[in-house]
Amino acid sequence: MDIDDLLAEVEVDSVPQEKRDLQELTRAWVAERVAPELLPWPESLMDRVLIRIRHQIELVEDQTGNMDPKANFKLIIIQTELERFKFLVRSFLRARINKIHTHPLHILNGHTEHSASALPLLAPSEYQYLMSHQALLSQHYASSFLSQFPASLQKLDDTTGGISMIDKPDEDAAVFCRCLRDVGEILVEGTDIRFEMTRGDVYVVRWSAIRGFVKSGDAELI
Amino acid sequence: MALPLPRGLTPSEVSFLCEMELVTVTPRQRLEGLALLGGPIKPLNPPHRASLPLWLALLLKRQRRANILPPPWLSPHSLTAILDHETEYADAFSPPPRLPPQPSSNTLPFSPPFLLGATADAAPDALPYHWLELGEMLLEAASDDFEDPDNVRKLLRGLREVRMAKLRTNVEKLDAGGGVKMNGIGGLEVGEGRAFVTGVIDGLRKIAASQEQQRKDRDRYEGTGDNYDDDEMEMDT
């Protein structure tokens, strides 16, 4: 390690929390837009970001009465940035809701499996949304046609007979990813493909092969 | 309410990302420091240069409060050199800029658009991830800050064509398993090529799905031993 590395390390540590959060939020947004399945809910990050957005909105509301042209321009900048942040958060949440709509039962199963762990799949409000959406949907199906079927055929999540009714996202779908730390050899299950992935490399690879690295922060989707 | 867009980023989302890149500006007016959500902005004191996110720099530029300093790689000289490299090596993109030293394992690693690929002291000999978007945006909003904007525009167009051709010829290398290396690809190029490249890989995978499943089952049954490749040969003959 030479002096440049040491300096750089000090610099990295001195990066303000806000900037690190912006990097994390941007990464989470891109990942959610690109990944075939729902990713764990970044709870502490979203808490920090949402609190900051709320404070900024209060600031804007306080300052709007100020007629001084200089303060006015500052306010324009602040509001422009606020809108950018709101877009990021909103697009992130909407991408998640889209996935919740597409595979509700699969996600619910995943969520109950992970609910005890530190990284739940869904935010509390998302869980609530999923449950009430699913309740409405099954009620509607039941009243419009399912009740006419024999009782044994009425289930929406039947897994007997070797075929599961629960729709799953395509976990082997190809994604573009960038490696953030050296992760060593990647093996694609069921094929001869194996390759070293080092920091900075960009690969097109199956989501299932690099999912773990994306979740641990060693790689990112682009 | 749910996002109706398919997987992948749209071009406008990519340029939204690109607007977070830091660029160097020479302010023409004073501006007090600001506490923004994405980190504080230092006070602007002309004629001292400062680094600002592109969206803010464009706003200041539009109001003639600042001039933007194009990054060194966005000069005719550098672009010509990179273009020569691109045409000479037909099988890979020109290498991306050198990465900053590896951060320690517990810090958050940064990646574009937060890697300083567009400030005045960026590397002059490599295209950063958001090269095309950044070049286009700067040429549109701040062409008077370039020495030779027409030439830069022409070279960018040339680079784009050479690189798109590479992306297309790369198709022959694609196969069902993926694992295709694409170092040096740009953000907009990922967005453009994504549907096609991933579509081809996914399609090929579905064709070969049953074979693969057979193999997976066998792997699980036998475990991955050393004689495993031989087995594969026997199966094929």
Strand/helix succession of chain A: HHHHHHEEEEHE
Biggest interface reads:
A-B, 74 and 63 residues
Percent of residues in helices of chain B comes to 40-55%
Proportion of residues in helical segments of chain A: 55-70%
Number of strands of chain B: 6
Structural class of chain B: mainly alpha
Q: Please tell me what the overall shape of chain A is.
A: flat
Main beta-sheet strand count, sense and barrel state of chain B: 3 strands, antiparallel
Average pLDDT over all residues of chain B: 87
How large is the share of residues in beta strands of chain A? Answer: 5-15%
Q: What name does CATH use for the topology of one domain in chain B?
A: Methane Monooxygenase Hydroxylase, Chain G, domain 1
- What would you report as the Rg of chain B, rounded to the nearest angstrom? 23 Å
* C-alpha geometry of chain B: globular
Specify the CATH architecture of the largest domain in chain A: Up-down Bundle
